[in-house]
Amino acid sequence: MQKDQQLLRGLNEGSEDIFNFLFDQYYEVLLSFAMRYLLDKEESKEIVQEAFVKLWEIRKELSSDINIKSYLYTIVKNNCLNRLKHNEIVLKNKKEILWKEMQYRYEALDRVQYGDMEFEELKLLIEKAIEKLPEHCKRVFILKRFEDLKYKEIAKQLNISEKTVEYHMNKAIKLIKKDLSPYLPILFLVSSLFEK
């Protein structure tokens, strides 16, 4: 506790040595902590760096009784949750664009051979098929189809090889095709889901 107070006092006074000491002391553990939320090393690094920047910016306002480690963990946790919320919104928007594009194609074909089937029914069937995928396949499929990442980018983000990404993508397509086999003719016409 006394050590924390000394560090805080030095930080309040703008000691770069103390800031660097804190950075060296906590960077790796905070990075591991962020990785548990985000599963992405680059994003996690950004989050941790932002936490240290914030610590430096508000150093003069820090009260003498805070626990620096807990404080940094709280900043990292909140930033991770905000990033996840943001990523979810971005992904939702990308999905909406893809669904709209499919819907326009579907309507342009004037419901070829599927007279009574509405696009919303088809969309629901696709979403269910994606949801049923094994976790790794689903993650790769979503990153490829809805976030439009390249195999190399997915491999880096998930910390796996490009071959493994390709394997999961092929498996996902195979499983979705199997699940949606009665609707494949129309799906091939309206969707880019099955491109590799």
Describe the structure.
- With 196 residues, the chain is mainly alpha-helical.
- It has 2 domains: 2-83, Orthogonal Bundle (Rna Polymerase Sigma Factor, Chain: A), CATH 1.10.1740.10; 109-190, Winged helix-like DNA-binding domain superfamily/Winged helix DNA-binding domain (Arc Repressor Mutant, subunit A), CATH 1.10.10.
- Helix content is 76%, strand content 0%.
- It has 9 helices and no strands.
- The chain has helices at 2-12, 16-38, 41-57, 68-108, 119-131, 135-145, 151-158, 162-179, 184-190.
- Helix 2 packs antiparallel against helix 3 (41-57) and helix 2 (16-38) crosses helix 4 (68-108).
- The longest helix has 41 residues, at 68-108.
- It is elongated.
- The model has no long low-confidence stretch (mean pLDDT 82).
Classified by CATH, the class of the largest domain is Mainly Alpha
Indicate the CATH architecture of the largest domain: Orthogonal Bundle
Low-confidence stretches: none
Morphology = elongated
Mean pLDDT across the residues is 82
List keywords for this structure.
196 residues; mainly alpha; Rna Polymerase Sigma Factor, Chain: A; Arc Repressor Mutant, subunit A; 2 domains; 9 helices; 76% helix; 0% strand
Write a brief structural summary:
The chain is an all-alpha fold and 196 residues long.
Please specify the SSE layout and strand pairing.
Blueprint: H1 2-12, H2 16-38, H3 41-57, H4 68-108, H5 119-131, H6 135-145, H7 151-158, H8 162-179, H9 184-190
Helix pairs in contact: 2-3, 2-4, 3-4, 6-8, 7-8
